[in-house]
Amino acid sequence: MIKAFFVDFYGTVVHEDGEIIKKITQIIYDTGKVEDKSEIGAFWWNDFQSMFTDSYGDSFETQRALEEKSLEHTLVKFCSTANANELSNYMFEHWTKPPIFEESKRFFASSPIPIYIVSNIDTADILKAIDYHDLTPAGVFTSEDAKAYKPRKELFELALRSTDLKADEVIHIGDSISSDVKGASSVHIKALWLNRFGKEIPDGVESITNLLDALDKVN
Question: What is the model's pLDDT at position 218?
């Protein structure tokens, strides 16, 4: 019997920061030395991802710290004169006041079972975003709480322990195959991939096109 939803937040309940990333990338391009703008995004992402992967346990660093470091590295790499703090604040502003997907509030209002947020983000930022949209999750678990990021097991294990739920009593919903589907599956939680944009569905992955579709899985 399914007793709760675990739900990713950015990219699932609210929009990701893709548009902000494009804005920052353009500023770095305009103020730096690079011919191909795509080089900026590729370097920035790879630099962030390498630190992100190694950030857990005693080596854990917050999302803000990792983003600031990777952005500073990117500015140096491309000889940009842009201000790192100013660019970082564009991201942080988005994290605390992100646009919400149309059906998200209906999902929270209509769910017959509790909804817990399980997110790779800093606790203070997501609490501000939840308050900004007047959402009412039953609980919130973050990478900062677990000192580890999805797809590692620690965040999912923390959420299960804290809610006193078993893996087979939960459905996890998220927009990332790697972080959400593989992460939840690693602790035997059923995962639904939120495929809003009609991407090809990998073998063995169960998908939905919006959050309301998930309600049919518990009726």
Answer: 85
